[in-house]
Request: fold
Amino acid sequence: MGAGAIPLQVEKKFFEQVKGKYKFYVYTADMAYEGDDRIDVSANGGDFIFVPPKHLLFDYRFKNITEDQFQKAYFEFLKESYTYHPDTWDAVLSRKRIVLICACNSKGKACHRYFIVNFLKKMGAVFKGELKF
Reply:
């Protein structure tokens, strides 16, 4: 195991602690969506608890790291964010519905929103797809 790596049982325990605590629906939408349930996860100006470090995002976009490497590092970032900002996370995750928006407006899995969706699904979210409005 490399420096900074978290053992699998620790990661499993993290998700076991939060699984079942929340029940909510997650959608994605483009930047034009203006609803109260929107969460901007854009690299420039998005909600800091969800925005990946720029170096990580650029490494992924420029293919310096694999999708699996990006997801692992991004999940670690999100878990740290949850640890350091539990009240903010709780306020977000206690909603019935959240809509993730990003400036890239990418359809499909090219956008990091889909990695957030995968993370949130481990916390009790149900992904409902792209919001049509």
